[in-house]
Amino acid sequence: MKSTPTDPEPLAHEPPRELQKAQEERLSKVWEAPKGWRYWSAVNNTKVGVWYTATAFLFFLFGGVLALLMRIQLAVPGNDFMSAETYNQVFTVHGSVMMFLFAIPIFESVAVIFLPQMLGARDLPFPLLSAFGYWCFLLGGVFLSGSLLFDAAPRGGWFMYPPLTSSYQPGIGADMWLLGFSFIEVAAIAAAVELIVGTLKCRPPGMRINLIPLY
User: Which of 11, 50, 53, 82 would you label with 102, given CA atoms 20 to 30 Å apart?
Assistant: First the structure.
């Protein structure tokens, strides 16, 4: 008599499919982003990383517009499109934005999104710290970029390094630059702590540092 194949019996420690599905739905409900205005209070690493990335690209576009304004000024000799003081302000904010609001944060934002997936973790170790770092980053960028609207932008050149800033500059431009960068530095430190602790403490059992996937 020919035996008919039967479905393998589930292991004793394997939960029923209904229970597993209920657990997944419960976890999804706990980890889903809030609705409405409360969406901006989310601390999930994916949401915060997307905000970081989108904001960095917005600052990149803003820096590109500033570069275009500079090229318009330099298009013809003796152009009076911008005054010398305004040009120096645009030049300084452009360099600072491109370096400290795009080039560096874009790597941190991508790491915030993908590091938990590479480690097999649900989230980074300090979700509130990630969200706090993002809002500090945004606030610092607003201070730096918005200073152009009030004729209070720095005019030290590029991103305010010597010898371009070795001479005294009247006004509050340098103070606005330092104010904005105080928040940006706090954001950078928060992201660094989050990523370093996540790499060291959120790895699954058996995954050594040298076994983490290279990205």
Answer: 82
